[in-house]
């Protein structure tokens, strides 16, 4: 079932993803959603599909600018 990710579409996010014992944050921009997966653009031209069952959290990505 689609839904739940509309608010995040087109925004920079951090997906908290879990599979087995592996827990990773994936930083990118959410592009689309199907019944089973969300598509995340990780780099300028690298899109990956992540199964929704693996996503445990979605957070806004707030880039930090460091000035010396």
Describe the structure.
- The chain has one domain: SH3 type barrels (Roll).
- 0% of the residues lie in helices and 57% in strands.
- It has strands at 12-19, 22-33, 37-43, 46-51, 55-60.
- Strands 4-3-2-1-5 form a five-stranded antiparallel beta sheet, with no helix packed on it.
- A hairpin with a 2-residue loop joins strand 3 and strand 4 (46-51).
- It is globular.
Mean pLDDT: 90
Please give the CATH architecture: Roll
Radius of gyration: 13 Å
Q: Could you list the spans in which at least 5 consecutive residues all have pLDDT below 50?
A: none
Sheet with the most strands: spatial strand order: 4-3-2-1-5
- What is the CATH C level class, in words? Mainly Beta
Approximate strand percentage: over 45%
Q: What share of the residues lie within helices?
A: under 10%
Number of domains: 1
Labels describing this entry:
68 residues; mainly beta; SH3 type barrels; five-stranded antiparallel sheet; 5 strands; globular
């Amino acid at each position: 079932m689609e839904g739940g990710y509309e608010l995040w579409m087109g925004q920079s996010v951090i997906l908290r993803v879990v599979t087995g014992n592996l827990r990773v944050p994936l930083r990118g921009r959410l592009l689309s959603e199907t019944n089973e997966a969300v598509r995340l653009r990780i780099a300028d031209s690298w899109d990956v599909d992540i199964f929704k069952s693996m996503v445990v959290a979605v957070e806004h990505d707030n880039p930090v600018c460091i000035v010396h």
